[in-house]
Amino acid sequence: MLLYFCSMLLFGMCQIILPLDVRIQNN
User: Fold this and answer.
1) Under 8 Å CB-to-CB from 7, ≥6 apart: which residues?
2) Can you give the pTM of this predicted structure?
3) DSSP readout, 1-27?
């Protein structure tokens, strides 16, 4: 259960951080 929560949290962070990183590189 804890492992599932951690993996979902990590996945959510990647979805938020990666698009921001792409936007910064494009600008």
Assistant:
1) none
2) 0.55
3) -HHHHHHHHHHHHHHHHHHHHHHHHH-
- Ramachandran angles phi, psi of 5, nearest 5°: -65, -45
Give the per-residue pLDDT at 4. Answer: 95
Q: Which residue type, as a one-letter code, is found at position 16?
A: I
Tally of CA atoms within 13 A in the half-sphere of 11 that contains its CB? 6
Rg of the chain over Cα atoms, rounded to whole angstroms, equals 12
Tell me the pLDDT tens digit for each residue of 1-27.
899 999 999 999 999 998 888 888 887
